[in-house]
Amino acid sequence: MSSYSFRELTAADLSMIKCWLNTPEVVRWWGEPAEQLALIAGDLDEPLMRQWVVTHEGRPFAYAQAYPVDAWPQPHFASLPTGAVGVDAFIGVPEMIGRGHGGAFLRALAEMLIAEGAPAVAIDPDVANLRARRAYARAGFIECGAVAAEAGPVMVMLFRQDARPGGMC
Fold first, then answer.
1. Which of 1.10.287.1700, 3.40.50.1950, 3.30.565.10, 3.40.630.30 would CATH assign to domain 4-159?
2. For the chain, which ranges sit under pLDDT 50?
3. CA–CA separation, 137 vs 133, rounded Å?
4. Predicted structure pTM score
């Protein structure tokens, strides 16, 4: 059993998310905190966007979201199978960064999404975000290649339960 759990994000969580969005590591990769908070809050009523507060042994420490990749088309996800899910996540508690939690909770999240029927789970970190890429690799995501995206170059990474390196991109 995982020591990580995912509870649905609610409006009551937005003050905590605001604090997390203002931490230096999150600002570095997610951008302007007020803009990101508005996007997260705006998605509370979006039925296709699933959002969670991630907890470790009952302590909230991270944010994650998942969405069908065809609902918000991005060229670098266009070749993914129908039903594929995109995810975005960050750790908002600085002392939880660099301790293996990112890879562990993202594996649990990806496995949950696959168990629910997603044929693949995709994530697209900034190519320069080496810490995140290593965490995603530890989680079982495989790098498929760098591509140009609207916000800059990203590394497309995929997770499939039955994946073998080199055969899933």
1. 3.40.630.30
2. 166
3. 6
4. 0.91
